[in-house]
């Protein structure tokens, strides 16, 4: 398998904490940028939240199934096998994309516009981590990965 970014777990934890704190304080205490929420009925915001949250969970779940589900059925991917089936046939980074959608769900729930700043920073951070990880995968799989990369988008599923 390819290498993760050296600080991937720490960066992910910090980004989750930073986003959560900013979103929570703006949404429920300071209410600095939540004025647009007043013009959108709560029921609509809840529906948007549920849709984005479930889509995020589905992407993460499908990625886990494609990568780790084979262990439940006694099968194992060889470490030298590039996974290009399931959700990975449509998008190269479904777990990170699912994470983006879950964060976005929280923004849609309260319309905390200030929370868009850490969200955009998280997208940029995860994109940089993905670039690092993809270089290593390219090194391992070479032309096979370049061909996969040319036909499967990094972020927006086809």
Q: State the end-to-end CA separation.
A: 25 Å
Total helices: the number is 5
Any low-confidence stretches, pLDDT <50, length ≥5? Answer: none
Structural class: mainly alpha
The whole-angstrom Rg is 18 Å
Q: What does the main sheet amount to?
A: none
Helical residue percent band: 55-70%
Mean pLDDT: 92
Number of domains: 1
SSE sequence, one letter per element: HHHHH
Roughly what fraction of the amino acids lie in strands?
A: under 5%
Counting DSSP E segments of at least 2 residues, the number of strands comes to 0
* Shape, per Cα inertia axes: elongated
Overview features:
5 helices; mainly alpha; elongated; 158 residues
Question: What does this protein look like?
Answer:
This protein is mainly α and 158 residues long. The chain has one domain. It is built from five helices and no strands. Helix 2 packs antiparallel against helix 3 (94-110). The mean pLDDT is 92.
Please describe the topology of this protein.
Layout: H1 8-30, H2 42-68, H3 94-110, H4 116-141, H5 143-151
Put the structure in a nutshell.
The chain is 65% helix and 0% strand. The chain has 158 residues and is an all-alpha fold.
């Amino acid at each position: 398998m390819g290498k993760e970014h050296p600080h991937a777990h720490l960066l992910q934890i910090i980004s989750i904490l930073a986003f959560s704190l900013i979103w929570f304080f703006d949404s429920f205490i300071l209410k600095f940028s939540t004025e647009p929420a007043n013009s959108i009925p709560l029921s609509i915001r809840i529906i948007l939240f549920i849709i984005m949250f479930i889509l995020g969970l589905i992407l993460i779940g499908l990625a886990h199934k494609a990568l780790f589900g084979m262990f439940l059925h006694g099968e194992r991917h060889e470490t030298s096998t590039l996974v290009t089936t399931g959700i990975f046939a449509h998008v190269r980074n479904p777990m990170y994309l699912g994470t983006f959608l879950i964060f976005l769900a929280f923004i849609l729930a309260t319309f905390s516009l200030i929370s868009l700043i850490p969200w955009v920073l998280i997208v940029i951070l995860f994109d940089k981590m993905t670039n690092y990880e993809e270089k290593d995968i390219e090194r391992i799989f070479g032309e096979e990965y370049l061909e996969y990369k040319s036909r499967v988008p990094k972020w927006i599923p086809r």
